[in-house]
Amino acid sequence: MGIVTAPRIPPPAVAAGALLAQYFLTRPARGGMVRRAFAVGLLGAGVRLGALSERRFRAAHTTVNPLHPERGTQLVADGPYAISRNPMYLGLVCCVAAHGLWRGGLLAQVPTALLAEWLDRAQIPAEEQALRSLHGRSYVEYCRCVPRWIGSGCANIPCGADADR
C or N terminus of the chain, fewer CB within 10 Å? Predict the structure, then answer.
């Protein structure tokens, strides 16, 4: 595998683009109190997951800058990182999905799926390569036990561009 460079667009900016796309692709749905309650719950879960994840990075004194994953100084593997290697991105996707759910209609979830795909194919592989380079065997073992997105238990999956597919 060759060198993978991190995208030059920060993931929150891509998420903002997904939110705008949802806004322009759909009209606000009427009613649906249950749907809206789920949207609020999903938004709350996404915000909480993102905030807890960022707090763990800051407590470990490592970078949260996704444009420079090579600046990471610590391998954070506890808290939310024990169930997902990318809980900040999982939280971001949850927030965009919540907005789509609030707006209503399946078309509103297309930008959510595109955001998740962009993160999975462009952003995350560059970060994985940098972390593998920085932390070696420790990171490879972490990848074997924690899935890229969500789950639990050792999966014996190699870490890299083809992981979790």
Answer: C
For residues 16 and 93, what is the distance between their CA atoms, to the nearest angstrom?
Answer: 11
Q: How many Å separate Cα 82 from the centre of its chain? A: 14
Give the single-character DSSP code of 46. Answer: H
Q: With contact defined as beta carbons under 8 Å apart, do 114 and 11 qualify?
A: no
Give the DSSP H/E element, type plus range, for residue 129.
helix 124-145
- pLDDT on residue 164: 42
Question: Based on C-alpha coordinates, what's the Rg of the chain?
Answer: 16
DSSP assigned state of 122: I
Helix (H) or strand (E) holding 151, with range, is none
